[in-house]
Each structure stands twice: as structure tokens, then as C-alpha cells.
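Researcher: Sequence of ROK family protein follows. Predict its structure.
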Amino acid sequence: MRNLTDPPRPLAAGLGNSNDQTRRHNLSTILTLLAQDGAQPRAQLTRRTGLNRSTIAALVSELAERDLVFETAAPGGGTVGRPSPVVNPNGRIACLAVHPDLDAVVVGLVGLGGLVHGRIRRETAGVPTAEQAVALAAGMATELRRRHAGVRVVGAGIALPGLVRSPDGLVTFAPHLGWHDEPLADRMAEALGVPAVATNDAKAAAVAELIHGAGKGARNLVYLNGSRSGIGGAVFTGGRALGGAAGYGGELGHTLADPAGGPCHCGNRGCLETEVGVEPLLAALGRSAADPDELDALLASGAPDVRVELERQLDVLARSIASFIAAFDPELVLLGGFLGSLFDVDPERLRLRVREASFAAISEGVRIERAELRENLVIVGAAELAFAPLLADPVSLSASA
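Model: Prediction complete. C-alpha cells:
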């Protein structure tokens, strides 16, 4: 089983090819453009792909026959001659998305184009085992399918805080969950009755931001996500996820941030996720927990003890970001989860510290921003990864679904 954080083609759709032998490639190109950029007139698809109008008409017709797209009339007025029909991705073709975490399991039902039909969160009494996560996910998936009976499910994506191996999706180590060598993708596929893929939750979030959020249009990106499970990361170069030899590429939370720092659960000292974390921030606030929106407001309160910890963490984060810029030469660094909250309190301090710690010739022009998508970020990303086989080959996968 492939881990689709290293997709069969770049996330961007690319250009079409007029050779008849590449019909499947052209179908893939059209469906990917629609799934990532939304409804478009046939004329716009013609311009974007470089294919002629008759070829586009034939491709759209075939995708419509397979129930993957549908056409609507163009908005009226202001055009000369017959307006070009608008081609829409069929959002009722959907994937399940599963996100196990420390205290809950979330399952979403996401249609082509990032349309979230529904989302259920079930809290757990403690950290769930892999078996409990599968059982909870199966029950929630059944409930979502019942609520949305007209939706056709073609796959499932699982995103979790841990190391997930390519190409089989084995969860080799999820330290915060206490999972070791769990064949989670295979178990979920059996329980849910559809093909399943598994990935790290930060990689899933990065995919969602690249396709539907603040990273749209970027080809070279570093994404960092902070949660109570630690800091996860993902790197995209040339539109492709950095996977590495075993699929662990982008594990940025366990890069060295401070040689004199505290011990990390991974066995080292001074890892980024050890030196930058939500727990010290909550402690400074006198809180044991806070939801994301509440955390934004609490961190912006300006309390002196909170400010000291905020500035310490921002400075550590800045040094790490400067190292990532030197290593990966991104055009954009995106911060999600509590790192986004941290950033929003004092974005200029972070940007200044990054510039101070960077090689100017490389860092000049790099943007640092907060991720746009919020509560649905991970489930949309997990679903997008599960859609990858369909987008790569609409013929074989839509026929067998």
C-alpha cells in the first residue's frame, strides 16, 4: 500500500497532452484542476490545459458519465454567443478522514473539492489504543454514511501524530499515543470497507493548506504544526512532499533547537517540540487546557508571565525556522495549531528573529504566515491524500469503487 504523502504526481494538475494514448493522463489533469480549484467553465479548462475544445468536451463527457463531474449553465449576461458550460467536481464522491489523537478520535466525510459533509468527534477516557481508534472510527463512519446517504465513499485517509512508514502506511512509532508497529491503514481499510492510506497529521495538514488554504499556489513550502502531541512538520519541494528513504522526511519537531535543552521523549535533548510547546504556555496562563480559539485570546492578554514565555518560545522557533529556510529554500513557511496562535501574538518579533538568524541571500523574500484552515485542517488533508489514486487515474479507480 502506497503512502500518498509522496503522490504519484505533483499536487498541481499540470498541462494536458493531445496524444490519444495519454487519455487517462488528460482525465486526471481535468479532474485534478476541478478538485483543487473548483468549478470552471469549459473554456477556462481549454486555456489552462492547452487542449482543444473538442478534446475537453470529450474528457468532460467521460468524467460526467463516471459521475465524477457535472455541468451547469454559465451565469447569464455579459457574454457574446453561447456561454461555456461550467464544469463542477462532484462533491458527493467522498473519502472518509480519520484523526486519532490523545483524547479523542475525529472522523470526517469530505467530498471532492474539499467539501466537508460532516464531522464527528468522540472523546476517549484516555489515550486510545489502535484497536479502540479503529472501532470508534468504524462506528462514526457508519453514522456519517447514514446521515449522508447519497454520498459515495471511495477511500479513507488516516492522519495521526507519529511516524508513518512508506509505502505500506505502517505506524512505526506514535510516542504520544504509545503505538508501535501498528498496521493502521490495513485495519482501517478492513473496518471501513474502502482502501485506506495513513500519514503523519502535519503532512496531511500541509496538503490541505497547499490545496485549499494559505499555501495555495506555493511549490516550495515548510509547514509546522503545534499541538499537545508535539510539533509536526512537512516539507514540499517542487510541489511534492519530501518523503525520504522510508517516508519519515519532514520530522521537524525532532530537530535540535537547543543543545542544552531539556530531555525529549525521543531520547535526545533540546528537540524543537521539547523547547516550544503548548504546556508551558498553559502553565503560564494558569490553565490546564484551552481550545484553539480560546488560546488565541488568552495569549493575547499581555500578562507579564505569559509574555516572558511567549518571547522565549518565539525566539527558539525563529532559530529553527531560520535553519529550515537554509536547508529547504522555501518560498513560504506556514504555522498551524498553537504555533499559529503564538505567531499571531507578535508576528513581527518572529519575522525579525528569523531574519537575524538567517543567511540573508536565502531568507530574503521568504514569507512566514499562519495557516488558514482551522478545525477541518487535518481531516481535509487526510481526505485529499485518500483522493490521490482517484485523481491520478479516474478510469480504473472510479470503475472499481
